[in-house]
TrEMBL record:
It is found in: Cell membrane. PANTHER family: GH07001P-RELATED (PTHR48021:SF1), PTHR48021. PROSITE patterns: MFS, SUGAR_TRANSPORT_1, SUGAR_TRANSPORT_2. It comes from the Eukaryota. GO terms for cellular component: plasma membrane. Residues 1-389 form the Major facilitator superfamily (MFS) profile domain. Its main location: membrane. It is a multi-pass membrane protein. One of its GO terms (molecular function) is transmembrane transporter activity. This is Major facilitator superfamily (MFS) profile domain-containing protein. The chain crosses the membrane at residues 36-59, 90-109, 115-136, 198-216, 236-256, 265-285, 297-322, 334-354, 366-385. Gene3D superfamilies: MFS general substrate transporter like domains. The keyword Repeat does not apply.
Length: 394
C-alpha cells in the first residue's frame, strides 16, 4: 500500500501521539511527558536497528511518530512557558532549528551507513535528551495551575535571579488561570469563544503554511530542479536548499522577537511570494519558447533559495509559537495538539496533491498558486493575527 512507507507512517502517527500525550502533559506535567516521549523515541530507533526486515522499520517508525507527536506538544509548550517574554520567539526558533539539524544529520549519516547504523547513532540523541531531564525544572505555569506555588517560586527564582519579583509573577499566573486552579483538566475551556477563535486562526496559519509549497519543495527538491530546467546538479541543489533554510532560521528568532509575530508573518510571506512569482514566469517562458529563448539554469535555485529562506522568518515557526501563546496554561497542551493535527493533515494533503496539481496546473500554474497563497498569508496576518510579542502567557 502506497501510504505505508516509513516517512508517511511516521507523519500519520504523530497525530495519535499528540492526542495521547496532550492529556498527560496537562495532568502529569511537561517534564514527565518529555521523559515518556524520549523513551518512546529510543525504543523506536531500537526497533529499526534490531528488528530484521521491513516490519521492524515500520514498527520503529510508528513508535517514533507517536513520540514525535508527544514531543511536539510537550517541548513547544515547555519552551514557551519557560522563556522570558522577550525571548520566546528565539526559544521556539531554537526548537525548530533542532528539528532541521536532526534531519540534516540523519541525511548525512544515510550516505555512509546502512539503515540500522543510522538508527543506532540516532538513538543517542533522545538518550541525551532523556538524561538532560534530570536537571530541567518543571514549568512554573503548570505548577501554579496545580496549586504548587512554593515550587513555582523556587523555579522562577532560579530562572529570573534572586532579585526578581517572583511573588508578582506567581500572582499574575494565578490571575490568568483563576477558574482552572487545582483542576486536572479543563476541557470546557476549549470550547470557549476565545479559544475557538484562537484555534481557527492558528489552524488557518498551519494550512496556509503548508500550501505555500515549502514542504513540497523540501520533499521533492531533486524532482523540482530537474523539471525546472536547472543547470545545477539536482542533488547538490537539494542540499543547498536545506542548508539555506537552516542558516536563515538561526537569525529568525531575534527577528521574530523584534518585529513581533504579525510583522514576521507578513515579511516572511512577502519574501516567499516574489521569487515564486518570478519562478512561475521563468518556467512559463522556458516551456513556451523552448530552445528559442536563452535559459538561465541558476534562476530556479536562486528563487527557491530565497523562498525557503523566507519560510524560516515566520511562515514556519510562527504557527507553532502561536499554538502555545494563544491558549491559557490549563488547555495549552490539548489546544496545541488539535492545531498540530490539522497542520499535519494539511502537510500530508499538500504532499499528496503535488503530482495532481502539477499535472493539472503545469509548473507555471503551481508556482503561481503558491505565490498567491503567500499573498493571501500577508492579508490574513495583517487583518486577523493577534500580536503576542512581549505578553505574559499563562
Amino acid at each position: 500500500m502506497k501510504l505505508l512507507i516509513p516517512g508517511s507512517l511516521l507523519t500519520f502517527c504523530t497525530i495519535p501521539g499528540a492526542w495521547f500525550m496532550a492529556p498527560l502533559n496537562a495532568i502529569l506535567g511537561r517534564r514527565p511527558t518529555m521523559v515518556i516521549s524520549a523513551i518512546l523515541t529510543i525504543f523506536g530507533w531500537l526497533a529499526v536497528a534490531l528488528m530484521p526486515g521491513s516490519i521492524g522499520i515500520l514498527v520503529g517508525r510508528a513508535i517514533s511518530g507517536i513520540a514525535a507527536g508527544g514531543i511536539s506538544v510537550s517541548v513547544n509548550t515547555y519552551g514557551i512557558e519557560m522563556a522570558d517574554p522577550e525571548v520566546r520567539g528565539l526559544m521556539s526558533i531554537i526548537i525548530n532549528n533542532g528539528i532541521l539539524a536532526g534531519q540534516v544529520v540523519t541525511m548525512g549519516l544515510g550516505y555512509g551507513l546502512r539503515y540500522y547504523g543510522v538508527a543506532l547513532v540516532n538513538l543517542f540523541l533522545p538518550l541525551m535528551f532523556l538524561i538532560s531531564q534530570i536537571w530541567l525544572p518543571e514549568s512554573p505555569s503548570f505548577l501554579v495551575v496545580k496549586g504548587r506555588e512554593a515550587q513555582a517560586r523556587k523555579v522562577l527564582m532560579h530562572l529570573r535571579g534572586s532579585s526578581a519579583n517572583t511573588d508578582m509573577e506567581v500572582k499574575k499566573l494565578k490571575d490568568m488561570n483563576q477558574k482552572d486552579l487545582g483542576k486536572s483538566l479543563a476541557w470546557r475551556e476549549l470550547f470557549s469563544r476565545q479559544s475557538l477563535k484562537s484555534g481557527v486562526i492558528v489552524t488557518t496559519l498551519f494550512i496556509l503554511m503548508h500550501f505555500t509549497g515549502y514542504l513540497v519543495v523540501s520533499s521533492n527538491a531533486s524532482r523540482i530542479f530537474a523539471n525546472a530546467g536547472s543547470s545545477v546538479d539536482d542533488g547538490v541543489a537539494a542540499i543547498i536548499i536545506c542548508a539555506v533554510q537552516l542558516c536563515a532560521g538561526v537569525g529568525a528568532g531575534f527577528l521574530i522577537d523584534r518585529l513581533g509575530r504579525k510583522k514576521s508573518l507578513m515579511l516572511s510571506n512577502a519574501i516567499m511570494c516574489i521569487p515564486l512569482a518570478i519562478l512561475a514566469t521563468y518556467v512559463g517562458v522556458v516551456n513556451t519558447e523552448g530552445d528559442e529563448v536563452q535559459t538561465y539554469g541558476w534562476i530556479p535555485l536562486a528563487c527557491l533559495m530565497i523562498s525557503q529562506a523566507g519560510v524560516a522568518v515566520g511562515v514556519n515557526p510562527v504557527p507553532y509559537i502561536l499554538s502555545s501563546e494563544y491558549f491559557p496554561t490549563s488547555i495549552r497542551s490539548q489546544a496545541s495538539s488539535i492545531c498540530y493535527t490539522f497542520g499535519t493533515l494539511a502537510g500530508v494533503a499538500a504532499l499528496q496533491l503535488y503530482t495532481p496539481m502539477l499535472e493539472g496546473m503545469t509548473q507555471t500554474g503551481l508556482y503561481a498558486f503558491y505565490a498567491c497563497v503567500c499573498a493571501l498569508g500577508i492579508l490574513f496576518a495583517y487583518f486577523v493575527v493577534r500580536e503576542t510579542k512581549g505578553e505574559l502567557v499563562g
